[in-house]
Design brief:
138 residues; 5 helices
Length: 138
């Protein structure tokens, strides 16, 4: 039974890792495009934010793969930063529209089918499960 729990826990981690990989590729692709082709814009804050999001997603993938107590805490913190970031940037963008063009987190990730808003909730739920904590040794 323990092998089955471990396999199912790894399977869920792999699915989350796949989606984070997909969105990391998208976020870094978006920021690269913006750096290369939005040169007449006065601010690169949206591009920097998209780059940050892409790198954040890569670290979350690493945290989902490493099964140590330290990485459990790191991944939990990274997922919390992601959730806070998408809520703050999404809310600011809806109310104020401070950026000359969209970021990954603009309008809560509407350009990415709201996955930037959904993924941290799913990731936090998965990390806080008893079986996941046991798999990480926490």
């Amino acid at each position: 039974m323990a092998a089955t729990t471990s396999k199912s826990a790894r399977g869920a981690s792999d699915v989350l890792g796949f989606f984070y990989g997909l969105w990391a590729f998208s976020a870094l692709g978006r920021s690269s495009w913006e750096y290369l082709f939005k040169q007449n814009v006065k601010t690169y804050v949206p591009a920097h934010l998209s780059t940050f999001v892409g790198v954040l997603y890569i670290f979350i993938i690493v945290g989902l793969r490493q099964r140590t107590p330290r990485w459990w805490w790191i991944t939990l913190a990274l997922l919390s930063v992601e959730l806070l970031g998408v809520l703050v940037v999404g809310t600011v963008d809806v109310i104020w529209r401070p950026f000359p063009y969209a970021t990954v987190w603009s309008n809560y990730g509407v350009g990415y089918f709201f996955m930037p808003l959904l993924l941290p909730f799913v990731g936090l739920w998965w990390m806080l499960r008893k079986s996941t904590r046991a798999a990480y040794g926490v």
